[in-house]
Specification:
heterodimer, A: 446 residues, alpha/beta, Rossmann fold, N-(1-d-carboxylethyl)-l-norvaline Dehydrogenase, domain 2, 2 domains, 8-stranded mixed sheet, 3-stranded antiparallel sheet, 48% helix, globular, B: 406 residues, Peroxisomal Thiolase, Chain A, domain 1, 5-stranded mixed sheet, 14 helices, 35% helix
Chain lengths: 446, 406
């Protein structure tokens, strides 16, 4: 079965979810493009969009139409060539409409999982719950005579456990998109010792067709991306709790968020990132990872407490940020949650005081947006952090401690063979988390 | 002609442009430009008839019959003659020609000539479909997704092949940088806010890429997608007295021509704009002057290559020498013949149906000393202005020769 044939009948599980909808979009477009090749004319391609939610599937189809139109508008030059033999399609508008139609006719929204029993390839993007994943994949494999391949989008569960428990024998790998899959370039690819070469080869080809950057990760809970992020988040939370011994927790959260964003020149502060991913998701991933870790307790009472209070962050279906640790206006944080009163306390009431306590940024500071555009930016960051190391301010001290911890986490991932090398860790954080510099660096000293 | 008025050319480049927000439509642009003229001529009562040039409101805005909007500008224009004219991107020029004919026929003494286009209602990829209507529809299927850029890219490709790629791109790059620098001097220009440094270097670094766009041109080679309107009064000597404007504040039309090529034929020579050549020659002949007496030109640079080929077509440079003529700075604002002194279609903007009128307004401003920061110096040896307005791929062309009233 070659690449095109493998993609003739595909299913996406959890297709209406945040990750599933993106995976479905990318796969539908790839399948449609293949179907337009002269040698595939007349062949029917099927992509089952499987989800439990009827409402979700209805929304998915709306989302797909809008997104496919955008995709088509960007490649109309190519599409005109592909439809050159269609005398009835003359204007760009005609061609774009036809392409949207050709993509959508491949997609079959359904709540019936049985439709996947005829697929050659199954993408799994259901909830991050090992038992659920195992149950579904096992059921499909038992009923599907095609020996299908399974690509799981798990961000934390070790693949070999899914493989063993579902009895998939080399026909599964981790294909971990970043959110949102349609935009983010990074894919973490995780194989088990049993994964068949053909499966890996196909996965690489598929990722390349989607223009993704593939970073191989070894099969440890959390892989590289969450391996770093979860530990980094826990460090931020603990740093805030430490500060909260002498100042209110609200101010401590503000300070650590500011240090992790401004002082460390990241796209967002750590508490904003936790909100972005969702307090619930972070808590859940830590819970999944924790049993697999030795000499380490990846757990935060603070996250548990936030969940009890029902403050979860995450995003609305429109993509707007929901309030979590922080409150957002037009996407920017403006206040911090006070667990004791259940209210948000405006930054304005304390930020001047906290900023003064943290102290000024180094003079050579450039905000993330500007720094990320500097080519070979080591020549910017090395003197920037050198300057910071000489400062005795609270902000500088917290930032250096934070940076050192990030380096240690990165090295831990290499030492524990989660990542094959330093470069892979840095690529994941640069492309998946949009850091301006890799976590493994020489900036912070030993 | 007198009492010219341009709205801002709105679109990408302007800081206030936000494609996601509601914007003014045809009504607002027509109204603003119309009133802008009427305010300078003592009101709508002075006007005998009106012409409005527009290319594709029927598709961009689902609105045809633009003559009907003239009465909206001022009640005193209602129940007077008003009609719209169309000749693709030459529509504005046709509105001027229509007004000139009426004056010459003595059917009017004061004509309000306008042009309008509101293009930012659709994305560029669909705008390309609409603009392709300026070509022969039978050729649309085999044309490029970006149809007109494709047509002029083909012309540019032949020019590169014939005269050398680097040589040609040097001239085109200079054309682009002139356009940006001139646009920065006119507050109504779409690139008024442009502050890029090293324009020519930026241009040369952006190589054409047929995978994303067309083979031989990049986006810097293209005119803008624009919303805007322009208006000007065309008056007889009698009319000038009626509106109370001094001759020195008006320009005299001393020559004009309007020629049209068969749209179903391909251009006979891809590196020659034959219709522009013939039309400009005819207008200059009527004016009784040579191109060497022309002090400033507004030419139809829908693409940079059209600018260079225009330089050759009006006779400023021999075939193949246009790129050199431009690269040497002859068309810059301090050069031998300053061209497109408020940015032209690439810098000021290209609200297609309004462009011909905008060109006349610019020449009127320059010749009467009303061009503000964009003012150039004109000498007594070269006192004339020339406009070249083109519809389609060198199909409908209007050329007008101006001199200051005295």
């Amino acid at each position: 079965m070659n690449y095109d044939e493998r993609l003739k009948h595909v299913s996406v599980l959890g297709a209406a979810g945040k990750m599933g909808s993106g995976i479905l979009l990318l796969t539908a477009v790839e399948m449609a493009d293949i179907s337009l090749k002269p040698e595939n004319k007349g062949k029917t391609f099927v992509l089952n969009a499987i989800d439990l939610s009827d409402d979700g599937l209805a929304g998915l189809m709306d989302y797909l139409r809008v997104q496919v139109q955008k995709v088509a508008e960007k490649k109309t030059v190519w599409l005109r060539q592909m439809y050159a033999d269609r005398a009835d399609l003359i204007e760009n508008y005609d061609i774009i409409e036809q392409y949207i139609n050709d993509v959508l006719r491949i997609v079959r929204p359904t709540t019936a999982m049985e439709t996947s029993y005829r697929s050659n390839l199954v993408f799994e993007a259901v909830s991050e719950n090992k038992d659920l994943k195992v149950k579904i994949l096992k059921q499909i494999d038992t009923n599907n005579p095609n020996q299908p391949w399974f690509f799981t989008n798990t961000s934390s569960v070790p693949i070999h456990i899914i493989e063993d428990e579902a009895g998939l024998k080399g026909r599964v790998l981790g294909f971990h998109f970043y959110n949102p899959p349609a935009v983010q370039k990074l894919v973490e690819l995780i194989v088990t010792p049993n994964t068949l070469d053909d499966v890996t080869q196909f996965a690489n080809g598929y990722a390349k067709a989607l223009r993704k950057i593939v970073v191989p990760s070894n099969d440890f809970a959390g892989f590289i991306g969450n391996g770093h992020f979860m530990r980094d988040a826990l460090h931020g939370i603990n740093q805030a709790l430490e500060l909260a011994k002498s100042i209110p927790l609200t101010e401590a959260i503000y300070k650590v968020n500011k240090v992790s964003q401004d002082f460390l020149v990241r796209p967002m502060g750590i508490f904003q990132l936790i909100d972005y991913v969702g307090v619930d998701v972070v808590q859940f991933i830590m819970k999944v990872m924790n049993p697999f870790l030795k000499n380490e307790d990846l757990h935060s009472d603070l996250l548990d407490k936030m969940m009890e209070l029902g403050v979860k962050g995450g995003q609305l279906s429109s993509g707007a940020q929901k309030d979590g640790f922080l409150k957002y206006e037009k996407g920017a944080p403006v206040a911090v949650y006070d667990m004791q009163t259940g209210n948000y306390v405006s930054f304005e009431t304390f930020s001047a005081k906290c900023d003064e306590q943290l102290g000024a940024l180094p003079k050579s500071f450039k905000p993330w947006k500007a720094a990320v555009r500097i080519p070979n930016n080591e020549s910017h960051f090395a003197p920037y952090f050198d300057e910071m190391k000489k400062m005795q301010t609270e902000g500088a001290t917290l930032a250096i401690t934070y940076g050192k911890r990030s380096v240690a986490i990165g090295n831990q991932l290499v030492n524990e063979k989660v990542a094959n090398n330093v470069q892979d860790v840095n690529t994941v954080m640069l492309t998946g988390f949009f850091h301006a510099y890799g976590p493994i660096n020489e900036f912070f000293g030993s | 002609m007198t009492a010219g008025y341009n709205t801002i050319s709105m679109g990408t480049g302007r800081k206030e442009f936000n494609p996601k927000k509601d914007r003014p439509g045809l009504e607002e642009y027509i109204s603003e430009a119309g009133k802008g003229v009427l305010n300078q001529i003592g009101g709508a009562e002075k006007v005998d008839e009106s012409f409005i040039g527009n290319f594709m409101a029927a598709r961009y805005n689902r609105q045809a019959h633009l003559g009907g909007f003239i009465g909206m500008i001022d009640p005193a224009l209602e129940f007077k003659p008003a009609l719209s004219v169309e000749g693709a991107c030459g529509s504005g020029g046709l509105a001027l020609v229509s007004g000139i004919r009426s004056i010459l026929a003595e059917t009017a003494d004061v004509v309000l000539a306008m042009g309008v286009e509101v293009q930012n209602t659709v994305k560029a990829i669909y705008g390309a479909d609409i603009l392709a209507g300026a070509g022969w529809y039978q050729n649309r299927k085999k044309g490029h997704a970006y149809f007109f850029p494709g047509q002029f890219s083909d012309r540019a490709g032949v020019y590169y092949e014939k005269y050398g790629y680097d040589y040609a791109r040097k001239g085109l790059g200079k054309w682009f940088s002139n356009a940006m620098e001139n646009a920065r001097l006119d507050p109504t220009a779409q690139e008024f806010h442009n502050n890029g440094a090293n324009l020519e270097e930026m241009y040369q670094n952006a190589k054409p890429n047929g995978k994303n766009f067309v083979d031989h041109l990049n986006l810097f080679d293209c005119s803008k997608v624009s919303d805007g309107a322009s208006g000007i009064a065309i008056v007889s000597e009698e009319g000038l007295k009626r509106i109370g404007v001094d001759k020195k504040d008006a320009v005299e039309i001393i020559g004009w021509a309007q020629l049209t090529r068969n749209i179903t034929n391909d251009p006979p020579n891809p590196v020659e704009l034959i219709t522009i050549k013939k039309t400009a020659a005819k207008a200059l002949e009527m004016a009784g002057i040579t191109i060497d007496q022309v002090g400033t030109i507004e030419t139809h640079d829908c693409f940079s290559i059209a600018g260079i080929l225009g330089v050759e077509a009006v006779g400023l440079a021999a075939p193949g020498k246009g790129a050199e003529f431009v690269a040497e700075g002859n068309t810059a604002r301090n050069g031998k013949v300053p061209m497109n002194t408020t940015g032209g279609l690439i810098g000021w903007g290209h609200p297609t149906g309004a462009t011909g009128v905008h060109q006349a307004v610019t020449i009127w401003q320059q010749l009467t000393g009303k061009a503000g920061n964009a003012q150039i110096n004109l000498t007594a040896e070269k006192p004339y202005g020339l406009t070249i307005n083109m519809g389609g791929d060198d199909v409908t062309v209007v050329a007008i020769v101006f001199k200051r009233g005295e």
